[in-house]
């Protein structure tokens, strides 16, 4: 498996490997920030099933999506293990650029998906989705994949990127893979390593809230106020965890809805100690 460090190398590799794009022989891109776990593995596996031998995995801890007081400096970096995992799951190439490569000196161009970027995680992390959209746009423009794989785990990110791909007329299909969880329900996240033993237990309140809402919906409940209140009650059982948001929204606009219908997104974010975690479910 090759490791590429420059945008030009990625562009060349991609051009050489997406032989007949129009006939399903394009290439797949799996953007990540590294510290790969079974959630990322599921994306790489899905990509290599769809585009065997033509999967690029990018590993880049993108500084522009971190706020000034966030964890950019201490974000887990496990490059050798990441390469081994990516290769095992069928990646053909790793793209691991430097910050200077992605943001050349004097870089002044950003991609701002208006309105959506201020919702959910964007409301509590100003500038986060601008950083995400900017770096993913750079990756999609360089690699021109016909498929790009993302996790439902970051559902608001998916909404922002779907909008961006349509607006910029990029010729890439966004493929969304299900949330991979620990056996006890906790959604896998590179940030779970920050949790101490007590916080690891407290963190289960997120998936319990999701579970509770899924059961209510299955029993016929659809009203937003009732579903949000039920989730709030679950969170109240774990007062050490501080809720950031509990929202029922249209997955395309991220705008709140009054009742759940097919495809509506129920999403939560909460602080467990100093670690902010997210979880969600899509109704239907
Ligand atoms: P990250 O490295 O955190 O930027 O994540 C890279 C990609 O992996 C994103 O599309 C995430 O949504 C996806 N991802 C992260 N955690 C999970 C998970 N538990 N299940 C499925 N996909 C995930």
TrEMBL record:
(R)-pantoate binds at residues 65, 157. Keywords: ATP-binding, Cytoplasm, Ligase, Nucleotide-binding, Pantothenate biosynthesis. It catalyses: (R)-pantoate + beta-alanine + ATP = (R)-pantothenate + AMP + diphosphate + H(+). Pathway: Cofactor biosynthesis; (R)-pantothenate biosynthesis; (R)-pantothenate from (R)-pantoate and beta-alanine: step 1/1. One of its GO terms (biological process) is pantothenate biosynthetic process. Its EC number is 6.3.2.1. ATP binds at residues 33-40, 151-154, 180, 188-191. Beta-alanine binds at residue 65. GO terms for cellular component: cytosol. The keyword Ion transport does not apply. Its main location: cytoplasm. Pfam families: Pantoate_ligase (PF02569). It is found in: Cytoplasm. One of its GO terms (molecular function) is pantoate-beta-alanine ligase activity. The active site is at 40 (proton donor). The keyword Translocase does not apply. It is an enzyme of class 6 (ligase). NCBIfam families: panC. Homodimer. The reaction proceeds by a bi uni uni bi ping pong mechanism. PANTHER family: CYTIDYLATE KINASE/PANTOATE-BETA-ALANINE LIGASE, PANTOATE--BETA-ALANINE LIGASE. Belongs to the pantothenate synthetase family. Catalyzes the condensation of pantoate with beta-alanine in an ATP-dependent reaction via a pantoyl-adenylate intermediate. This is Pantothenate synthetase. It comes from Telmatobacter sp. DSM 110680.
